[in-house]
Prior knowledge:
seven-stranded mixed beta sheet; globular; Aspartate Aminotransferase, domain 2; four-stranded mixed beta sheet
Amino acid sequence: MKPGWLAAGAPHVWRPYCPMKTAPEPLAVARTRGARIVLEDGRELVDGIASWWTACHGYNHPHIRDAVREQLERMPHVMFGGLAHEPAYRLAARLARILPGSLDHVFFAESGSVSVEIAMKMAIQFWIHRGLAGRTRFVSFLGGYHGDTLATMTVCDPEEGMHSLFSGVLPPQHVVRLPRDPADEAALDDLLDRHGREVAAILVEPSVQGAGGMLFHDGEVLRRLRRLADRHDVLLVFDEIFTGFGRTGPLFACEGAGVVPDIVTLSKALTGGTLPLSAAVASARVFEAFWSDDPRATLMHGPTFMANPLACAAANASLDLFEAGTWRAEVARIERGLKAGLAGCAGLPHVVDVRVRGAVGVVEFDRPLDAHRLGARFVDEGTFIRPMGRVVYLTPAFVVTDEELDRLTGAMVRVLGSIPFAG
């Protein structure tokens, strides 16, 4: 039976990423715990995607919950303009300590897309302060995704991404192939030779391009980008909104490649999936361009709920859990389980690749899939898995048990193996 709140609210809620007229009704959720979603009708689903990759420690982790409750009683929110509070300042210092290199200067926001916009704004303004006001464009990559706000839409893949409808409307950027080999590196080198004086920064998702198709690349790609950025004197921005906080193995994907960007963006797992928070973290080199007696050097940005104390308390509690260190063994365990459990998908019809990196497992097909139909089949298997274009993926919470992981991978093999492809 449909709960009353769903029936009453449905005519008024505009849902994300779905055609409102034809999309099936969403699943009504009563509560969550660990790696499970409990529906209003009593069914329990093992969550295969950790609420868009955020709930890395699992739902309702007691340490994070207690920190948020304590902060709620003391101060749920206060504006960040002209005021300071301990949760944000402590969080900024801790992020500076665990990020590599001189990534020491933290600008808070409330969503990943906004943090990328801030990073883009920082990059353009950096060159203005250096006397190079014409550097206003960006180099990004095919298969990339950086958000749904207007500026971030311009640096997403214009065809394979979610925003092809806006092609020709948004300001054009240089969206090119990742330098996976010397030939593509040479092509990017040539582009920067020709257009480098108009480029503010290179923007990339390190290790895994997430929502653009869960596409993997190795550390040499990032080292090539660092060399090219240095050679042509452009900034390098890493979007670690998906990959940050252990998802691919290391705490940050840039660590695995031994590459330090000039700006990094963080969100999603920053608060352990409890509250919205993001950050654009700049290197000393970038920050110094804003350190001036001239008021025009101010970064004119300030989201109303930036550095929200509740969210910062959650993030500090999440960092406590990361500092405990057990997550590394859990991610390694999940990686082994994904490799073993998804191996059976490799020979299925129209499957072109099965790949695993850290706590990310991907099955890629040679054609788009019916996400709604498959999603319903996965629910019947006691799992919550959302196909995306040509891929079906798993990014479970790090606390997922072996039994729960087996349920997820088993559902993938059974459901994907029974797709009735035409012809």
